[in-house]
Specification:
By secondary structure, the protein is an alpha+beta fold. The chain is built from seven helices and six strands. It folds into two domains: 46 residues, no CATH class; 112 residues, Pnp Oxidase, Chain A, CATH 2.30.110.
Length: 171
């Protein structure tokens, strides 16, 4: 890969960044099988870069809420309910896309979460998530009747955030 081929074009800055970052990671360092002929690239695949551990998923499922801080700030953050669907972590702003913390998440695209004493640097994705299959049911199952009023409304669906762990730097 040449430096010229990594040069981002308009609209592909994130894609170029992710490709360059994945190229720096070694699958074996992440406990994955070594590169073989079935892999098109020697770097990690997208789904291998940022996935929640089974322990994290259990913690999220068994804990009522998390504290989310968007961006690089020392502010205390906002406490929100969360669900895990197909191994992915989601939160919703019940006040909709006008919510101050949702707008901060959308603006920064990264932040931190705290669940008890566990802290993670995270990536925050806000686009195209309101129709994710199973989210409403997961919120209803976890939060009961509160979910209907708070996170299953059209306003809250429009303010869905997927939270992914930020890839840790290679040693």
């Amino acid at each position: 890969m040449t430096l010229e081929s990594m040069k981002p074009t308009p609209g592909s800055h994130l894609g170029a960044f992710l490709r360059a970052r994945r190229a720096q990671l070694d699958p074996q360092e992440r406990g994955l099988p070594p590169t073989d002929t079935t892999r098109r690239v020697t770097a990690l695949r997208r789904e291998e870069v940022a996935t929640w551990t089974p322990e994290d998923q259990t913690l999220f499922s068994e804990t009522y809420s998390l504290v989310l801080t968007a961006g690089d700030t020392d502010h205390p953050g906002v406490e929100v309910g969360m669900v895990v669907v197909a191994g992915e972590l989601y939160v919703r702003a019940y006040r909709g896309v006008g919510s101050r913390w949702y707008r901060a998440a959308r603006k920064h695209g990264h932040g931190t979460i705290r669940v008890g004493t566990v802290r993670h640097d995270v990536l925050l994705t806000t686009d195209g998530l309101e129709r994710r299959a199973g989210l409403d049911a997961a919120f209803r199952t976890k939060y009961g009747s509160v979910a209907e009023a708070r996170v299953a409304s059209p306003e809250a669906r429009a303010a869905t955030i997927r939270i992914d762990p930020a890839a840790t730097p290679a040693p």
